[in-house]
């Protein structure tokens, strides 16, 4: 009888390493985009897009917990309505391990359904979004797919968790 070999799921550390490599790749790509768009107003302390009820793949939550979990007990969550990880100066306490969505917020975003759609943070509304060439927008889809694949490698399912839940709320 022919037996189909079963594939062993990688351990969490291996998947986490792949996630961190993906985040580094995203950071390199977004840095190039920001260089081409010097009028973007995003900076530390600007927290207009750092909203509560944000959910992320469990893998990204684990990345945050892996790096900052020992500090969680000493942190007070940011006010309800804002991201739980904002400090008293509206700076991100988990910036180094912030989720993918936070790495691309504020950028001109583009995605294609039946038509090409674009969006940008209202604080960057002065950027002529419709006039931007395609390469000056962050195109959604490919990285999200890679992130979902990593999450499924970890858990076998696209499990999402609320960031505020990491702080026990």
Outline type? globular
Elements, N to C (H/E): HEHHEEEHE
Arithmetic mean of pLDDT = 90
Radius of gyration: 18 Å
Q: How would a crystallographer describe the biggest sheet?
A: 3 strands, mixed
Major β-sheet strand ordering: 3-2-4
Residues in helix, %: 25-40%
Specify the number of helices. Answer: 4
Can you tell me the number of structural domains?
A: 1
Q: Beta fraction of the residues?
A: 5-15%
Count of DSSP strands: 5
Pick out the low-confidence regions.
none
Cα-to-Cα separation, first versus last residue: 52 Å
Structural class call reads alpha+beta
Q: If you had to describe this structure to a student in words, what would you say it looks like?
A:
There is one protein chain. The protein is of the alpha+beta class and 169 residues long. The protein has one domain. 33% of the residues lie in helices and 9% in strands. It is built from 4 helices and 5 strands, in the order H-E-H-H-E-E-E-H-E. The longest helix is centred in the N-terminal third of the chain and has 25 residues. It is globular and about 45 Å long. The mean pLDDT is 90.
